[in-house]
Amino acid sequence: MKIGIGYDVHKLVENRKLIIGGVEIIFEKGLEGHSDADVLIHAIMDSILGAMGKGDIGCLFPDTDDAYKGANSRVLLRTVTDLMTKSGFKIGNVDSVIIAQKPKMMPHIEKMKRNIAEDLETDISNVNIKATTTEHLGFEGRGEGIAAQSVCLLVNKENH
């Protein structure tokens, strides 16, 4: 078994779509980034890459490479899943939290879980997503950005 942790944050800006967990959320701002800036999927990818000892998404998908400009993070997650599978692992479980004052995430969490489970080629029961506010404290509480944290457990495919 291998355990990894991931963290990501993106700034909220005008004239961008807000995509979290592969779900487009109607909101007056979106997340700034080289790709679609899906903060949740980025944190999940970092937790998986960390568990495998393979760096982070900046190593695998550098923001200096135009091939990833505007990239769909679900496509990138499938690439990480393929790397995980070829390395002999599968998901034991993923537990994540989205940290945002607004918008409300709860109406979107089940769809996020379905998307991520599909991309990770695992059962939806192995994916947990929570959301919290910061009670108006910090950059998230001021509505300047959204953060996400994730931890994952990878298990050896041969032993399970």
Automatic annotation (TrEMBL):
One of its GO terms (biological process) is terpenoid biosynthetic process. HAMAP family: IspF (MF_00107). GO terms for molecular function: 2-C-methyl-D-erythritol 2,4-cyclodiphosphate synthase activity; metal ion binding. Residues 1-154 form the 2-C-methyl-D-erythritol 2,4-cyclodiphosphate synthase domain. Homotrimer. The gene is ispF. It comes from Sedimentibacter saalensis. Keywords: Isoprene biosynthesis, Lyase, Metal-binding. Its EC number is 4.6.1.12. Binds 1 divalent metal cation per subunit. This is 2-C-methyl-D-erythritol 2,4-cyclodiphosphate synthase. 4-CDP-2-C-methyl-D-erythritol 2-phosphate binds at residues 8-10, 34-35, 56-58, 61-65, 132-135, 139, 142. Its cofactor is a divalent metal cation. The keyword Lyase applies. Belongs to the IspF family.
